[in-house]
Design brief:
five-stranded mixed beta sheet; 15 strands; eight-stranded mixed beta sheet; 2 domains
Length: 260
Amino acid sequence: MKLDVEIALAHRLADAARGAIRPHFREPVHSEAKEDASPVSLADREAEQVMRRILEAEMPADGIHGEEYGVSAGTSGRQWVLDPIDGTTAFLAGRPIFGTLIALLVDGFPVLGLIDQPILSERWLGVTGKPTLFNGKAVQTRPCRELSAATLATTGPQYFDDHEGEHFMALAAKTAHRRMVMGGDCYNYAMLAMGQIDIVCEAGLKLHDYAALVPVVEGAGGTMCDWNGDPLHAASDGHVLALGDPARLEDVVEALACGH
């Protein structure tokens, strides 16, 4: 699948979002709580608005699914999925481990994904069939010979319900749990693609949270799936796994199933 035009467009979307976000970082920013109690700031809204304007002008037949301004249907079978600031809590705390997420879905499956960290000027691009690039250079996940040596990451225990938390802790108990990483949102997946982390496990994610991550992780040699090991797509239920070494998939799914 040749996506040269879409790749160039994704970079311009990310550049535009950077321009909207950077002036607000570590400045007094008003935020509000959404219906699910997660925060949203002026920077989130401005960044999504500038990206939507570009897409509406240049790809009018494509659908758009944005975290802040919802879904606009297209006619092409393609959908751009936008999360202007994935990790608004980190952004509001002045921590540069949030990211702008941009994905292109074709018939419900991610074929292009971009993670941009606007403060550190770090950008990961994943495209189906191509190696993942970090600031233009190819990156790779690392091998993990056994689960007990794996570094596990998740954004936080507060995002699991009691049942999910038990399954997560069953997995954590079989990993190198003293090296567990908490916090990070999309940045954890970028670090997994760089070979710094072995497993990311989360629940309750929405399409805009995970769509862009799939091509980035898989283009670096990793795998992404739900907690049953099935591929992620537009209708997935939000239980998300990322593994740097696909050879550990069966071990991870089995460990998760041990939670009661």
